[in-house]
Amino acid sequence: MTGDRALGAEYFDATYERHDDPWGLATRWYESRKRAILLASLPQESYERVLEIGPSIGVTTEALADRATSLLSVDVSATAVQRARERVGDRAIIEVRDVTTDFPEGEFDLVVLSEVGYYFGAAGLAAVLASIVAALPEQGTLVACHWRHPVSDVPLSGDAVHEAIAGLGLHRLVRHEEEDFVLEVFSRDARSVARRTRLL
């Protein structure tokens, strides 16, 4: 991996000041479809404790709240957090937090790392991934999804992020790859959905 120039709160706050929904999360079919694939790829119907890293304006957060007993979403941008809180209300705890230096304490049954890994830079991503692995319990799951096309001001590619995740030693349950994005599900538990639900 190359690219240690992490993008921080100033970059994202400025982006949200220019656009209410900078990536069209609430309006683009591309985003709606990708979100549906992510949610359908989760190996369990529901989770006790979920961590979402980088909720942006909270569109995916809304959907995750239906699958979680407790949902914590953290974003480095105070502007994004405010918009996510307005959308989601009290269905999730949404905090301003830089996970590269201040990762939430405790274990999480599911960690969602969607469209944010490449902003951390190589060193920041390594720190975040180490924290995620430490936070996953015996059957804990990590779902990661990232854009694959080049972006000039982003320090890492989506493929580089997923190469780093593949080296964590977790079991890969799902790999969905398109020209535009790659989505993978990793878990400490190697069982398939059929085995988890006792169909086999």
TrEMBL record:
Q: Which domain of life is it from?
A: Bacteria
Official protein name in the record = Nodulation protein S (NodS)
| This protein's UniProt keywords | Methyltransferase, S-adenosyl-L-methionine, Transferase
Is S-adenosyl-L-methionine found in the keyword set? yes
InterPro entries in the cross-refs: SAM-dependent_MTases_sf, SAM-MeTfrase_NodS-like
Q: One GO MF term, please?
A: S-adenosylmethionine-dependent methyltransferase activity
Which Gene Ontology terms describe the biological processes this protein takes part in? methylation; oligosaccharide biosynthetic process
Which SUPFAM superfamilies does the record match to this protein? S-adenosyl-L-methionine-dependent methyltransferases
